[in-house]
Design goal:
- Helices cover 31% and strands 27% of the residues.
- With 383 residues, it is an alpha/beta fold.
- It folds into two domains: 134 residues, 3-Layer(aba) Sandwich (Rossmann fold), CATH 3.40.50.720; 215 residues, 2-Layer Sandwich (Dihydrodipicolinate Reductase, domain 2).
- The strands form three sheets. It has a nine-stranded mixed β-sheet with strand order 16-15-14-13-7-12-11-8-17, covered by helices on one side. Strands 3-2-1-4-5-6 form a six-stranded parallel β-sheet, with helices on both faces. A two-stranded antiparallel sheet has the order 9-10.
- The model has no long low-confidence stretch (mean pLDDT 96).
């Protein structure tokens, strides 16, 4: 089996999720390439974190708090970078200049200017394989919806609604962190952190926003600083984007609504997608992660059916088809998608490849326009 040697820059939750996925690679018996984690880097890395990686990654040979040292390591062929948004441009471009393949985190730059710089660096280094993380593409129900899109099963698109709803910031006593500061998270607020996940499936389907009318909310305007005081919290907590979109295949225009909320009472981590068409409709929510709702219309009674999905995935695993699927499985499938496309030069299917740099540029155009829309109280046209 081929091996791609990785360094991880940013050893928080998603860095550890990647380490866990790499340790589970034997779960994917048909893969011809695997990741091997050889180096980690994190500023102010704790001894507890170091111990976790050392105890669980026998291939680990470098631990550093300087990302440049990791990028200078000839034993590292590829990097996964999961750092605050304000560091994306510096770290991603440095990785590409060092000749490393890259899996980056969303939003792929703190703003459009940073994303433009990253995109220019991607163009400058065509031999580097570059993708962005988003695991929601890889849930079985979403894969089924993707196949329906490819087959034209929906007919003419009537409407698409997609969103990502949290209650993670509902508690006003929750101390501020970097995702609640404009300096580290950026002016997009919740759009920059949650919005890329919301855009991943529609943009892959070729449903391109033509305009946007955005309503943004800063609900909790100050938070504890963790030192006994209070500090301003200036990022957007919730965003609703009302768009018209064009189907790139048919040219049809339809309503397209995107919602990202960090203050959504009753929610935990709810990513949802609803596609309404003249021939078929589909609904999915991670609240019921193994259920797909489908309505197929042929002139008779309209009936929604619920389908238990099981392990209907692009990259075969050792888990039996009837068993339920979870978030860690989606992350494993996402990394399989990255390694498969790196190895074969193209994704296994249209919806089994990771988010492309061009797709990140599309959501930056949308989020930048959304900020202008909210500020002016008008619809902003993207074309």
């Amino acid at each position: 089996m081929k091996t791609l040697r990785f360094g991880i820059i940013g050893c928080g939750m998603m860095g550890r999720e990647f380490a866990s996925a790499a340790a589970r690679w034997l779960h994917l018996p048909e893969m011809n390439v695997r990741p091997e984690i050889t180096a980690i880097c994190r500023r102010n890395i704790s001894q507890e974190n170091i111990r976790w990686f050392k105890d669980n990654i026998p291939t680990l040979r470098q631990v550093t708090n300087d990302y440049r040292e990791l990028l200078d390591n000839p034993d590292v062929e590829a990097v996964y970078i999961s750092v605050p948004h304000n560091l994306h441009q510096t770290f991603y471009c440095a990785a590409l200049e060092a000749g490393k393949h890259l899996m980056g985190e969303k939003p792929f730059g703190i703003d459009k200017q940073a994303n433009d710089a990253i995109m220019a660096c991607v163009t400058k280094h065509p031999d580097c394989f570059v993708r962005c993380s988003s695991q929601f593409l890889f849930f079985p129900a979403v894969q089924r919806i993707g196949r329906m899109v490819e087959a034209g099963a929906f007919g003419r698109i009537i409407e698409v609604n997609v969103g990502f709803l949290h209650s993670s910031d509902l508690n006003p006593a929750k101390p501020i962190n970097w995702k609640r500061t404009v300096e580290a998270n950026g002016e997009y607020g919740c759009m920059g952190d949650l919005g890329p996940h919301v855009c991943s499936v529609p943009f892959r389907a070729g449903w391109i926003p033509l305009d946007v009318r955005a309503v943004l909310s800063n609900i909790i305007q100050e938070r504890p600083d963790g030192k006994g005081g209070m500090v301003p919290c200036r990022t957007w907590d919730n965003a609703t984007l009302l768009c018209q979109a064009r189907d790139s295949d048919s040219g049809d225009v339809f309503p397209f609504t995107l919602r990202t909320q960090r203050i959504s009472p009753g929610q935990k981590n709810n990513w949802y997608l609803e596609v309404l068409g003249t021939k078929a409709c589909a609904k999915f929510s991670t609240k019921n992660a193994n259920t797909l709702e489908v309505l197929e219309y042929s002139g008779r009674e309209q009936v929604w059916q619920k389908i238990d999905m099981g392990q209907e995935i692009p990259f075969k695993s050792i888990t039996h088809d009837i068993f339920q699927f979870g978030v860690s499985d989606a992350i494993l499938q996402m990394w399989a998608g990255f390694l498969y496309e790196f190895d074969k030069g193209k994704p296994f299917t249209m919806f089994s490849g990771c988010v492309t740099p061009d797709e990140t540029a599309s959501w930056h155009r949308l989020f930048t326009a959304a900020l202008k829309s909210h500020e002016s109280g008008t619809t902003i046209f993207l074309e």
